[in-house]
Write a structure and sequence with these properties.
alpha/beta, three-stranded parallel beta sheet
Length: about 280
């Protein structure tokens, strides 16, 4: 989305959308790409909505800003279609954000983000601070919109159970690195990276009685001062000397499964740890 403010910056690499690199785009080019090609649904819809504007006017604003020229009546009908698509009534368009519940605000954010049928929807913790029932309603809404529009959805979240219900593939990220990538079944049923294993093990099992919750000892490293080797080495139960010295490579372990860990790198010899 290129919304990072200073002192943050893009250090390198590419952001490819339909073969076009978004990184070199200037502010105006990127502004036009947002909403039309790639949209963001934030984790805090309240902060994303203007408290002194009616809902329909906020959606109008994005459409008009992207050059959509039509009569007020046609624009309003389009907004009503968007609201109905996310399970809201037309009269919500006349309301202000403070008149809506948390779940309704999140649905408005989805309606706004998909108002121009983008190719990619980035959903950043879209159910944060919502109760379990509303979480599922919002995710079902997002799934329905994804099917209706044909857009790809990048779902960012920390709730592995929720992600597993709605995603096709999962990328586990630690300290800015994608350390484990695979299908939902591969990640959940056969976690490879030590962090993935600990992450899944920390999720409470309702059928199993535990004396205490299982956590992951230690804290993530500051992104401005990453360790020289593997970023997870200080917290890893399988750590060896090479882990503190050499950054692991992205290793394809078969079936389009990728793991960033020395345990799976055929070019690295581990003394005492076993793969599995």
């Amino acid at each position: 989305m290129k919304l990072t403010k200073a002192p943050g910056y893009i250090d390198g690499g590419q952001i490819l959308l339909d073969g076009r690199d978004l990184v070199p785009l200037n502010d105006e080019e990127m502004r036009l790409a947002r909403l039309a090609e790639i949209a963001l649904v934030t984790q805090s819809a309240m902060n994303a909505l203007n408290p002194v504007m009616r809902i329909e006017d906020q959606i109008f604003d994005g459409l008009i800003d992207h050059g959509i020229k039509d009569s007020k009546e046609n624009l309003r009908n389009h907004v009503y279609d968007l609201l109905r698509r996310v399970g809201l009534r037309e009269n919500v368009g006349k309301m202000y954000p403070h008149e809506l519940s948390g779940g309704m605000k999140q649905r408005v954010a989805i309606a706004t983000g998909t108002s121009m049928n983008p190719k990619v929807i980035v959903a950043d913790e879209p159910t944060s601070a919502l109760d379990v029932v509303v979480q599922r309603q919002v995710m079902m809404t997002l799934s329905r919109v994804q099917r209706d529009t044909g857009a790809a959805v990048i779902l960012i979240g920390h709730d592995m159970g929720l992600v597993a219900q709605f995603a096709d593939r999962i990328g586990v990220m630690y300290a800015g690195k994608l350390v484990d990538i695979g299908t939902v079944e591969q990640i959940i049923e056969d976690p490879k990276h030590p962090y993935t294993k600990l992450l899944i093990n920390s999720v409470p099992d309702l059928e199993e009685k535990r004396e205490r919750l299982t956590g992951i000892p230690g804290i993530p490293p500051p992104l401005v001062d990453l360790p020289p080797g593997c970023v997870f080495a200080p917290r890893c139960p399988s750590v060896e000397d090479v882990c503190n010295e050499l950054q692991p490579a992205d290793t394809d372990v078969g079936d389009n499964r990728h793991v960033m860990c020395h345990l799976f790198d055929p070019d690295v010899t581990m003394a005492g740890s076993e793969v599995g």
